[in-house]
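Look over this record before class:
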Amino acid sequence: LADALARLDVVAPVIRAEAPEADAARAFPAASFAALRDAGLLVATLPHDLGGGGLGTLARLPLLRRLGRE
């Protein structure tokens, strides 16, 4: 979890920069999505045997909470 939160801290500036424009235009935030993908955060909740980070239900809550603040 600590690793995923640290990776989210790296991605957060991209999300913050893109969010207002994407929201105003009602557009898909492609740069944010790509940054999350590149940081491995889109698969953080998948099991390890499927190439994911293996975060369980309770472990993913802090990650989702922090992502929601961005």
The chain has a mean pLDDT of 91. The chain is about 65% helix and 0% strand. The radius of gyration is 12 Å. Helices lie at 2-25, 30-38, 57-69.
